[in-house]
Specification:
Length: 181
């Protein structure tokens, strides 16, 4: 199974770090089973098959088929390209001592950023009958949905990781010299 989420860094001791160092960071990207190289190979196969069919239609004298076949080829390659382009989108979730930052980047590179304080943050997985649950992160005044492109398993795993990071943030370990072994 391919993991859509890459855990960049996870720090276990929030009491020992600075305010701007991430306690939790996740980069979420849409899953694509085929990369750009695979797409180039597939398009080459489509073009070769199209040329073969067009050659046969030319020999048979079915000239209108050649135009429609060419139009279908252009449409198919355009759809594959748009699908691969959509894979450039991403979400970055960063939790520090003071704030949670969620940054969405669309396929064109435009960014939208939301920052929230950590005092009342929770990660809630809202179950939806017959579909993938919705993961929201938020506090008293603001909630945002994250991981819209993730599947059920990945979304549940992300919710558990976020909740564990928030729990570690709220219950730091203190180094007491008197209680050491």
């Amino acid at each position: 199974m391919h993991d859509n989420r890459k855990m960049i860094e996870r720090i276990e001791e929030p009491s020992l770090i600075g305010r701007d160092i991430p306690l939790f960071q996740a980069v979420l990207r849409p899953y694509r089973s085929m990369g750009w190289r695979g797409m180039a190979i597939l398009c080459g196969v489509l073009v070769a098959a199209s040329l073969l069919v067009n050659g046969l239609m030319f020999i048979l004298g079915a000239f209108p088929v050649i135009g429609f076949n060419g139009a279908e080829l252009i449409l198919a390659i355009t759809m594959f390209w748009l699908n691969m382009r959509a894979a450039r989108a991403s979400e970055v979730i960063v939790l520090t001592q003071d704030r949670l930052t969620v940054t969405w980047t669309d396929p064109r590179g435009r960014r939208n950023r939301v920052e929230m304080g950590t005092a009342w943050l929770t990660a809630v997985l809202e179950e939806r009958r017959g579909s993938v649950p919705v993961l929201t992160i938020g506090g008293r005044q603001q909630r945002v949905a994250v991981g819209a492109h993730l599947g059920d398993f990945e979304k549940r795993e992300l919710a558990d990781e976020l909740q564990a990071a928030l729990t570690r943030l709220r219950s730091p370990r203190f180094d007491n010299v008197q209680t050491r072994d």
